[in-house]
Amino acid sequence: MTVIGIVGLPGSGKSEAANVAADQGVPVVTMGDVIRAECRERGLDPATEHGAVAKALREENGPGAIAERSLPIIEDNLDDADTVLVDGIRSDTEVEAFREAFGEAFVLVEIDAPFELRAERLDLRGRDAGAADGGESLEERDERELGFGMGAAIEMADRTIENTETLAAFQRKVRTLLREGPEGLE
User: Fold this and answer.
1) What are the tens digits of pLDDT across the range 151-184?
2) Number of Cβ atoms within 10 Å of the Cβ of 143
3) Bridge partners of 108?
């Protein structure tokens, strides 16, 4: 059993890593989906209210709220798979929750990319509303994410994948991680 947690700032490549995992038949638990579902449950638009709802969930239920809601989903997936990828860890509290739940079977991988490249990718993705469309700027998103404890979570990473090359090169790195484990990234 292996649970691979992915951490990184917006636009770094977390969703692409999840896509590679899914293409390889590895179940993916996307923590952002927990927040998007809560947005819909509250009658709010996930494109513009995602950040506010993420903050509200943590304020209402503690800093580990989203990890706690994700744990049963991860455990269900482990019933049928040896490896599960968790996309979108945002804080050291979430890392600690997963390490407590899965012990040495949990590995945290940071996806890293420079600000300009992340901004370009997010613009191309078009999934999230930017500041001009009633959402948050990338600077605001980074500040919010770091405020959740993402900087501390990034520092806890067991391995880092630099996502500064081509998409194909990044996908190869993720496939190596899935096939060989974190040791394959050395």
Assistant:
1) 999 999 999 999 999 999 999 999 999 999 888 8
2) 11
3) 5
Residue 15: what residue type? Answer: S
Per-residue pLDDT tens digits for 26-35: 999 999 889 9
- Tokens matching residue 68: 């706690």
CA distance 109 to 127: 24
Residue with tokens 């501390």: 152
Closest CA to 35 of 58, 2, 6: 58
User: Which 3 state secondary structure label does DSSP give 183?
Assistant: helix
CA distances from 177 to 102, 114, 121 (A): 18, 21, 22
Nearest to 29 by CA among 71, 92, 81: 71
Please report, as a single letter, which amino acid is at residue 25: G
Residue 124's identity, in one-letter code, is L
Enter the pTM of the model.
Answer: 0.86
- DSSP one-letter string for 149-164: THHHHHHT-SEEEE--
Tokens of 139: 């600077």
Judge whether 185 and 112 are in contact, CB under 8 Å.
no
